[in-house]
Design brief:
Helices cover 75% and strands 0% of the residues. Helix 3 packs across helix 5 and helix 9 packs across helix 12. By secondary structure, the protein is mainly alpha-helical. The chain starts with a helix and ends with a helix. It has one domain: Up-down Bundle (AhpD-like).
Length: 216
């Protein structure tokens, strides 16, 4: 196997750094989040990278944990600056985020591409508001922001969902989406192992079980 093929079967150092940051933020474990942010910045994550992950937390674990995590990021950055560490700011999205009907169209297109087919069903007919919120807020407002690529966003998403008891169905869905955006089985297995080793055994088991279901 070539060096490039080997690389494609392994999460990058930056992707690996995202896993505990996303998981601890979603779990609300601020003390461990603090350390994981420090380690992620030391590994080369930019301020923008971390900020994007923590903003995305709101879509899966709610605004309170997203806001608390962002507040902790501010504390970490301030402490690092006082120690003389200047972290790379990173980049902003390269394009303006659509508004109104254009945002709904963009979000619908992103959702369809990520899932691999148009998303519809009885649940969304029963509660059309949640369908619109998913398409506009999550797949529009968040996934239109291209300063964090879709592979990194799915690494973050699977990590967030895996720490939430009762979200197994969503972990399963996003394992498939992760494969749709180009993450390999080996990379996703590595993600599950990082959760097991660095976060907790239950989170790692949820991720691995979801991945195993895709192989059946």
């Amino acid at each position: 196997m070539s060096e490039s093929q080997n690389a494609s079967e392994t999460l990058s150092a930056l992707q690996r750094s995202i896993v505990p940051i996303a998981a601890f933020a979603a779990a609300g474990d601020i003390a461990k989040l603090n350390l994981s942010i420090e380690q992620g910045l030391d590994a080369g994550l930019t301020i923008s990278d971390v900020k994007e992950v923590l903003v995305q937390v709101y879509a899966y674990a709610g605004f309170p944990r997203s806001l608390n995590a962002l507040g902790e990021l501010m504390k970490v950055l301030d402490a690092r600056k006082k120690r003389g560490i200047e972290d790379a700011p990173g980049t902003l999205p390269s394009k303006a985020i659509p508004k109104g009907d254009d945002l709904l169209k963009a979000g619908t297109a992103n959702q369809t591409k990520l899932v691999g087919a148009p998303v519809k069903g009885a649940l969304f007919e029963f509660a059309p508001a949640i369908d619109e919120y998913l398409k506009t807020h999550l797949f529009g407002d968040i996934f239109e922001r291209d300063n964090l690529d879709w592979k990194a966003r799915e690494v973050a998403t699977v990590s967030m969902l895996s720490v939430l008891p009762g979200a197994e169905a969503q972990v399963q869905s996003h394992m498939q989406i992760s494969k749709n955006v180009g993450l390999t089985t080996n990379q996703l297995g590595q993600l599950a192992q990082i959760l097991r080793d660095q976060v907790n055994a239950d989170a790692g088991e949820r991720a691995q079980n979801a991945l195993d279901q895709l192989q059946k």
